Amino acid sequence: GADWSHFRGSDGSSFSAQTDLPAGENIGESIVWKKDLPGRAVSGPIIVGKKVFVTASGGPKDEQLFVLAYDADTGEELW
Question: For residue 36, what is the DSSP state?
């Protein structure tokens, strides 16, 4: 599908123009990969090209911030 370049999508509407996305009862069957993140993951993922970017926070007061990038196809951590 198209890039999801920031929170609530590229146009800010929270909607995708793509029409062949999974939905309903079978949505879990379309999950290709998932990852445990360091600490709390309270962000919405950003997708650009073949990369997925997420943020997380950790530490006793969630003062440690993480930005991670994954390969969209394989889930391999890039950085």
Answer: -
Task: Summarize pLDDT for 41-61 with one digit per residue, the tens.
Answer: 877 888 889 999 999 998 888
**SS3 annotation, the chain:** CCCECCCCCCCCCCCCCCCCCCCHHHHHHHCCCCCCCCCECCCCCEEECCEEEEEEEECCCCCEEEEEEEECCCCCECC
One-letter amino acid identity for 31? I
Q: Which stretches in the chain have pLDDT values below 70?
A: 1-2, 4-28
CA-closest candidate to residue 3, choices 64, 72, 55: 72
Distance CA(71)–CA(63), nearest Å, equals 26
